Structure formats: structure tokens, C-alpha cells
Amino acid sequence: MKWTDAEDIGIALSEKFPQMDPLAVRFTDLRERVLQLDGFDDDPKTSNEPKLEAIQMAWYEEWKDKG
Asked: pTM for the whole thing?
């Protein structure tokens, strides 16, 4: 997965952290969680706020659908 794979990352985060409210996660913490995902293989330096926001929203969509 790459930073631009927001939907795939959102799904992975919702599976790894099912009880965590994505909107309560700071971008710095979100970035670290993404970097720790199995299958994530992108340059940490290329993350930015718009990419993290897209990931957070994708994660939120998955989380609220499961809740």
C-alpha cells in the first residue's frame, strides 16, 4: 500500500484498531499507525496533511459502518 491508497489503508486500520474512533486520532499518531501496517510500503517522508486526511476519512467510513 502507498499513501494514496486511502481506502485500503482505511480498511486495514479499521481491522487493526476496531474500537478506536478515527476522528480522535491526531495526524502524527495516524501517520505512525499507517507506517506500522503490514503491507504498507511507501516513503514516510511523502506523507502530508491531505493524504492523512483522506486516510482518516476512509478509516472513519469503515469504522462507522461497523459500529
From this structure: 0.94
